[in-house]
Fold this protein.
Amino acid sequence: MSQVDQSASGLRQRLEWRDEHTLCLDDVVFDVRALGASPHADRLRLMKDRPMVERYVDLLAALQPRLIVELGIFQGGSAAFLSGLLRPERYVAIDISPWRVELLDEFVDSHDLRDNVRLHYGTDQADATALERILQEDLDGRAPDLIIDDASHLLDPTRRSFNILFPRLRPGGTYIIEDWSWSHFLFSPPSTERSLSVLIYELLLTMPFAQDVITDVSVNKYWAAIRKSDSGLPTPPWDITQAYSPYGHRIVAAAEDASGPSAS
């Protein structure tokens, strides 16, 4: 499989926006909309809006990942878009649903990506044994350059995945947590779960206390991008709740209490 021009201009040249909800990548037409039902059952859907997609293209051009792991397949649009746009050496994705996405399978087959795209259904993002086995088998023991969590968007399973996978990210690699802010949107219903934004506090508080673990946390309304230290730390087993100061624990405890089921 040939390499592609991963510069921002090179990636954009392969994209054509027909309108705000219609994106063409080479010969594939994606339905792009973060909310609402899609009128196009025959199109792969990207559950993102146009500004988010365009920011992602810039980020991917900067990172140029070759080994990618993504948590969450859902309707298959992200898997098709990332693997089609970047043509990575290996793209691995899991989803808790046991049901395969037919349109995604058709995309992988028609674009000769079967050896490079590995899809695992019926897999919980918090299942340490399954995640470790998948990374070992699909990446041949190599460390991924980029990990994207676009799965449950819930605090506990997202934190669990981070504890499992962040130590296995390559030194200097990037871990992205999408939709950390969903519980704060005006249209979001009251949640019975603690907000995923609590994990953002933990990431920020880890940087000054464990300086050889996380070197940068970049946050926008779409995602948090966490850069792992070049030192290669931490090593498994690891727990982010033990990676910040006692004062940090007071801040996190207050945030958890404020965002819990009893919060008004």
